[in-house]
Amino acid sequence: MKIENALYRLRPKRDASWLEAIAEPFASWLESDSYPLRFSIVDVNNGEIVIESTIIRFAPYNKYAENLSMIEILDPRKKSYQSQPFGVVQIIPTGIRCEFGGFAGDACPVTNLLASTVDFLVTHPNAVNASELNEMADNVLYVEGKSLDDFLLGHLGLLRVQNNRIGTFVDPTGIAYVDFVVNTLNAAKAVKGIDCDLYTILRKELGVQIEWAESGCAVGTVLRPEAILEAAEFLISRGVHSVGGVSVIHGVTKEMFSRHLSGEIPNPSGGVEAIITHLISKIFRIPTAHSPLPYYQNIKEKDTRNPRASAEFISTPHYYSVLKGLAKAPRLVSLATLENIPAQLISINNIGAIITPASCLGGV
What we know:
2 domains, 4-stranded parallel sheet
């Protein structure tokens, strides 16, 4: 398997929905035995749409090839009717310098405000994770970004639960910090009652590396994606319902972190963290989230100038927020159709609105 970032310039057909306008020409660019883990529209000009995408390439005989053969965006399913309970989806994209949600859990207040107006609100970890803090309201559903994409495309339903057993994988690059991780797991179990004592330390380093896209967005790559999947498969075989991960992220400089703290550039690690969790979501259809182990020795200086980023400085593994989110994250159920959805499942039919920063949709 190989992960790489690519730029595509598409000429969409006329008189098509925006999704059709993107999906069909995008599919024609994709090579066989490849899957788009993420993509974003970064420019529209003179009838041309520019897309930045992270692609995973795999051999046709790879054990996960069948899982990666279905590209959901090529088969979008439209909402059939308005069902109850009534919910909304909030999306705050990672790695694009959002004013709210671009730092460390700083979108949590607005998330909870929106949630107070509806029966439930679906959002992703980036909106509420803040190192050791996760103050999302009880009616906020914590769904990883790729799973949220597929939920909105009509391919997944959400099953609310009271608790999940959580398994954790640890990048051996950060072995010096493993006691911090174990203490976080132990504290979450002893104080909050979260079932999270199972963890595994990988045998090989993941090689998580940041990159910057042409648009200025934070992206990245992973040298050994198979190691992530093997770890998740091991944890699932031990009976976990959700998977969290902590890994060292390479390539962040002192200057980058300082500029991020000042609001000049996106969180350098945000994009590559999404790649890790998107891969787990796609292959295993389970709740997942990730936090960075210290990549900032002599880089991440203590600072008090930006309250939106203050949560960055109160933790070493930044992992308790993930555990709290995954503990009650809804389980994922594949849907063959949007008709006759079981009453206990939440689907796109329950969603009345999608809320996202205005500039994330070209100002629409």
